[in-house]
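Field log, afternoon session.

UNIT: design team B
ACTIVITY: writing a sequence onto a fixed backbone
BACKBONE:
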């Protein structure tokens, strides 16, 4: 009861003055705690909780749809086709260009000036733009302090995600009676925005469906920037928030931060638009694309447990002739499937870095690292994290490939992006289990596209 009362009071404070403005919702600015408390289960180290103030702004109640995107750009890059489905597979730069096109179509001054990878934002503009990371979290939370914008853990009837894996299932997989929210359906696709109950501000799908690009370049929080923070001026990754149709609930928390290169297309990331001046002047933001060596000495590095990833790695070697290296922990995981599930989530939960049995002695000689792993609990296995931290990936190209049981890459690409911030990351190859009869052709196509 006290929890419910606290949320109601917080929501009243946030919603004072809120109203629909055409297709946009006007959000009354204010102070809030951005990030997560140390007590929040499955929090990441980059979620340092700190007080932030945002000004009044407007935000769309829905994610941008494919019909809306195609009308203004003439293009529809989405992997799941449907006029009323959210657009996805758009780069951050394409989302920014859409914002400018939408502003021009309505006679508004565009917020952005785009010069290659450098984007300048006129803070006084009232044209359409991407929300800042702070505005996005403020809107998502709508006055709440809980992991999701609900009093309870989110379920498959409240959001579109990998519903088999609700919040805290990892440590309760074999004792699901302890879960506050039980496993639900997995739709394995995007759905039309607006099918679930909106949050307290009237915003739909802030958790799930597609992740949403934000303005900010990814970095540790600058806790000194307490009013309308806009992120650093340069970096290698852009932030996206909210999680998508294939994400586990832990990666849809209000505080969770995903990151990817701004030129990367992701089948589970789209965006929604915002409006509103937050000051005067112009800030310039440039996501630096790390340059890779012109040489193409290739190393295939992989971690395997069941053998699926190993089979993929050896087919890649057959087609490329590259050298191969198995990432092996000193202490092997159990051969029992049920036991390894527990061990894998334990290591992930503890952010463990298992010692590796063998090491790449001439790592500096390789320019391209084809990095393979199974999708374990929607991320990379802990030994792969050890591998990424052991070597200097600056200037190198990472080509990820992943075996999975239905969730594709999960948030493993974000994990790689954060652990190897100075590497170029190409399009990845996700393989369902061992790949079957299509594996050879799928690998050939992937190699050709990259």
């Amino acid at each position: 009861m006290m929890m419910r009362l606290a949320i109601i009071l917080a929501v009243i404070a946030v919603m004072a003055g809120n109203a629909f403005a055409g297709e946009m919702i006007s959000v009354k600015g204010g102070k809030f705690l951005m990030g997560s408390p140390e007590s929040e289960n499955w929090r990441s180290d980059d979620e340092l909780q700190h007080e932030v103030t945002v000004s009044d702004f407007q935000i769309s109640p829905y994610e941008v749809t494919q019909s809306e995107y195609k009308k203004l750009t003439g293009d529809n890059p989405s992997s799941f086709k449907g006029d009323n489905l959210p657009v996805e597979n758009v780069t951050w730069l394409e989302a920014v260009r859409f914002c400018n096109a939408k502003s021009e179509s309505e006679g508004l001054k565009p917020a952005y000036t785009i010069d290659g990878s450098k984007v300048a934002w006129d803070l006084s503009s009232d044209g359409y733009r991407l929300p800042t990371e702070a505005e996005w979290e403020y809107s998502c939370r709508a006055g709440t302090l809980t992991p999701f914008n609900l009093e309870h853990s989110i379920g498959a009837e409240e959001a579109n995600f990998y519903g088999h894996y609700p919040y805290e299932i990892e440590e309760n997989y074999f004792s699901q009676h302890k879960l506050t929210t039980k496993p639900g359906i997995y739709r394995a696709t995007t759905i039309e925005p607006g099918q679930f109950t909106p949050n307290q501000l009237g915003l739909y799908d802030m958790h799930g469906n597609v992740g949403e690009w934000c303005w900010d370049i990814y970095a540790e929080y600058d806790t000194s920037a307490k009013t309308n923070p806009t992120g650093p001026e340069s970096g290698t990754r852009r932030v996206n928030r909210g999680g998508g149709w294939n994400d586990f609930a832990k990666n849809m928390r209000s505080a969770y931060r995903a990151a990817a290169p701004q030129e990367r297309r992701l089948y589970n990331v789209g965006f929604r638009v915002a409006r509103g001046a937050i000051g005067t002047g112009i800030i310039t933001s440039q996501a630096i694309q790390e340059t890779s060596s012109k040489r193409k000495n290739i190393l295939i590095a992989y971690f395997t447990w069941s053998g699926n990833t190993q089979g993929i790695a050896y087919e890649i070697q057959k087609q490329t002739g590259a050298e191969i290296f198995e990432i092996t922990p000193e202490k092997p995981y159990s051969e029992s499937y049920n036991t390894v599930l527990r061990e894998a989530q334990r290591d992930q939960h503890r952010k463990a870095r298992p010692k590796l049995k063998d090491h790449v002695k001439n790592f500096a000689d390789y320019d391209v690292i084809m990095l393979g792993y199974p999708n374990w609990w929607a991320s990379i296995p802990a030994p792969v994290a050890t591998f990424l931290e052991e070597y200097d990936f600056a200037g190198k190209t990472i080509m990820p490939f992943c075996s999975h049981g239905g969730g594709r890459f999960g948030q493993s690409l974000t994990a790689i992006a954060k652990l190897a911030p100075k590497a170029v990351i190409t399009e990845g190859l996700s393989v369902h289990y061992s790949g079957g009869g299509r594996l050879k052709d799928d690998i050939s196509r992937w190699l050709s596209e990259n």
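LOG NOTE: Confidence is low (pLDDT under 50) at residues 1-22.
NEXT ACTIVITY: expression trials, pending approval
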